[in-house]
Amino acid sequence: MKLFAILAASAAALLSTAPASAAKVVYTYSSTFTGTRDGNPFVTAATFTGIGDTDVSTTSFGFSLTPLSSFVAQADGPYVITTPFFFGAGTGAFSGGAGFVADIATSNAFAFLAPGLVGYDGRSSISTTTLPFFTNATFTTDRGNIVLTGQSTGTFSAVVDAVPETATWGMMIGGLGLIGGTMRRRARRTAIRFA
Fold it and tell me: What residues does 22 pair with on adjacent strands?
């Protein structure tokens, strides 16, 4: 009974807290790229996937920048990009531009441009959009350096993966506590005793 009371109190405390507003954003860009991998020429189809957070952003050089907690290139196997990268969405004069930005100071950017990105805030979902523009970029990865020098027209999308609100977690924990408490009481009542 004491355990049940503790769980109920914990659930009540969680329910009374403010709902969480952060959510994960997954940015995906796919194309066929030309460039070099550790100095060797290549042409490869690849998908770049960056994961950001709707709660975290900064503004620089006319772009709203979201730090990426994870950034991977999937071509002939995953390349984990070790340079800190941001996802940037253009504002003002840069509206309509977006891309992955490695170094704000040197503008090492992997950028795309399309009418469908005009007004895009960089932190919400956007359906698959064809993007015809590209600027060169260098990626330091766990499998060597990638330098992209060209591409065919690519596609971009962003998906917001909502995080359950604190109140939702509270209700789940409280529900599990109620189920556990009920099962424990029922087990006590139906115990079989042998003489």
Answer: none
